[in-house]
From TrEMBL:
<dbReference type="InterPro" id="IPR002934">
    <property type="entry name" value="Polymerase_NTP_transf_dom"/>
</dbReference>
<protein>
    <recommendedName>
        <fullName>Polymerase nucleotidyl transferase domain-containing protein</fullName>
    </recommendedName>
</protein>
<feature type="domain" description="Polymerase nucleotidyl transferase">
    <location>
        <begin position="11"/>
        <end position="66"/>
    </location>
</feature>
<dbReference type="InterPro" id="IPR043519">
    <property type="entry name" value="NT_sf"/>
</dbReference>
<dbReference type="InterPro" id="IPR052548">
    <property type="entry name" value="Type_VII_TA_antitoxin"/>
</dbReference>
<dbReference type="GO" id="GO:0016779">
    <property type="term" value="F:nucleotidyltransferase activity"/>
</dbReference>
<dbReference type="Pfam" id="PF01909">
    <property type="entry name" value="NTP_transf_2"/>
</dbReference>
C-alpha cells in the first residue's frame, strides 16, 4: 500500500491516461474498497473504477490498455491496482439494484 500523496499521483496518472485513451468519454475515477474506507493494510490492493460514457459491450476493446498501464504503475510504485473499467450508462441503470454498485456509491471517493 502507499501513502496518500503517492496514491494521488497514481490516480492522476490513471486519469491522464484515461483522458488520452477515451477522450471526452472518460468521466471519472472512483476509489472504492478498503482504501476508500480507510481500513486497508500493507497487503491491500487499490480498487479503482474507471467510469466511461460508452456501452458496456464496447469496453472490451480497451481493457488490455488499462490493464497494461496499471501493471506498469504497479511495478513502478510497488502497489497492486485492481482497475475496473465501467460503462457509465450501465452503472446508472443498475446502481440502485446491485449491492456492489451501492457499496461503491456509499464508500467510494470520486477523482476526476
Amino acid at each position: 500500500m502507499c501513502d496518500k500523496t503517492q496514491l494521488d499521483i497514481i490516480l492522476r496518472q490513471i486519469s491522464d491516461y484515461s483522458k488520452e485513451l477515451f477522450g471526452d468519454k472518460f468521466k471519472n475515477i472512483i476509489l472504492y474498497g478498503s482504501c476508500a474506507r480507510g481500513d486497508y493494510d500493507e497487503e491491500s490492493d487499490i480498487d479503482i473504477m474507471i467510469m466511461v460514457d460508452m456501452p458496456k459491450d464496447e469496453l472490451y476493446k480497451y481493457r488490455k490498455f488499462i490493464t497494461d498501464f496499471c501493471a506498469d504503475l504497479d511495478l513502478e510504485n510497488n502497489v497492486f491496482l485492481s482497475p475496473k473499467l465501467q460503462s457509465l450508462p450501465f452503472f446508472n441503470e443498475w446502481k440502485n439494484t446491485l449491492p456492489f454498485y451501492q457499496n461503491v456509491i456509499k464508500d467510494g471517493v470520486l477523482y476526476a
